[in-house]
Design goal:
Helices cover 42% and strands 21% of the residues. Helix 2 runs parallel beside helix 9 and helix 3 runs parallel beside helix 4. Helix 4 links the parallel strand 3 and strand 4.
Length: 332
């Protein structure tokens, strides 16, 4: 009997060595599904950065993949379902997944879903929605834009005429008017998130109308805004990530929406504590630290003075405390 037990123990040990992961708990499989593409140096890249940070921090506990839909509507549902069939957690990045999540979340209760940038309620306890108070961060950069403007006109280029984009613009305009009630705020919509040439065309139109600061809210399309700013000798503002490094001479600041860090937070809570706030909508606002303004680093030229930065910091605290109420298109 002892000999038999020894043989069984030896076989178990050999199997554990031969099959990686057999002797330890299986890794949490996480897929990030993007409605667009990597390489925007903004929204989608931020989501990927969150996944990569998780993989670096928990290399033996998490496995991960990124799936790009490249703004192809025919891929949204197919890629989401495929990811859900092969993973424990699916992070859907982009409003384009609204219909697919509504239909398939209830059908796949074993998979946990995280919906980025939209609040989808009443679908299932396996779905966590994360929305962002982009209007609050946009208020800050609007204030900066108005303070820097020499013409009394500023602009914004949106990827599309949609609620989320307009929430940025409403906050931006409110912040500008807080700085200067006479400021004029103009806007253009590119109708795409993946066409820098179109973004440049829209920005050039705004600069031609007298705007000297333009806020890009259009993912990769917005890189054309930076090109237009450089060509015309004007300023631009980045979005979602700290984009100043792209062109430090013309990008004065960026409205930061920490998509990656919010993904890290949600997945880490699940991994380490087994906590998943399914069935809820979590708003990442300025008080959470996931909404802010960034100015690049000290090696870059700083068009925003220390005095103006101090004003912005004071406004930030007033927004957090509720002393300043920033308007939103999502208000009831």
């Amino acid at each position: 009997m002892k000999k038999l037990l020894a043989v069984l123990l030896a076989l178990t040990l050999l199997l554990a060595l031969a099959v990686p992961g057999l002797a330890q708990e299986a890794a949490l499989r996480v897929a990030v599904v993007l409605s667009g593409s990597l390489g925007d140096r903004s929204f989608y890249d931020s989501a990927n950065a969150g996944l990569q940070a998780l993989l670096a921090e928990y290399p033996d506990q998490i496995s991960g993949s990124v799936i790009e839909c490249k703004n192809d509507a025919s891929m949204f549902t197919t890629n989401l379902i495929s990811a859900a069939e092969q993973n424990d957690v699916v992070v859907a990045v982009g409003w384009e997944f609204w219909d697919a999540l509504t239909e398939y979340v209830p059908q796949m209760p074993e998979t946990k879903f995280i919906f980025i940038d939209n609040g989808l309620d009443g679908v299932g306890d396996n779905l966590l929605s994360i929305t962002y108070a982009q209007n609050e961060g946009s208020f800050l950069v609007g204030y900066i834009a108005a303070k820097l403007s020499q013409t009394g006109k500023i602009g914004a280029v949106g990827g599309e005429d949609a609620d989320t984009i307009n929430d940025f613009i409403v906050g931006y305009e409110a912040g500008a008017q807080y700085a200067n009630p006479q400021i004029q705020c103009l806007r253009q919509y590119a109708g795409t998130y993946d066409d820098p040439a179109k973004g440049k065309e829209n920005a050039l139109a705004l600069y031609d109308m007298g705007c000297d600061v333009v806020f890009q809210i259009a993912s990769r399309t917005g890189e054309g805004v930076f090109e237009a700013a450089e060509e015309t000798g004007n300023y631009a503002i980045g979005v979602d990530s700290d984009q100043k490094y792209i062109n430090p001479q013309v990008i004065v600041c960026s409205m930061v929406k920490e998509v990656g860090k919010s993904i890290q937070s949600a997945v880490s809570a699940l991994l380490l504590e087994g906590e998943f706030a399914g069935g809820t909508i979590w708003e990442a606002d300025m008080a959470t630290g996931f909404i802010d303004v960034a100015y690049g680093d000290d090696t870059m030229p700083q068009q925003v003075s220390d005095e103006l930065k101090a004003e912005v910091e004071a406004i930030k605290q007033d927004i957090i405390s509720g002393a300043i109420q920033v308007p939103s298109v999502f208000e009831d």
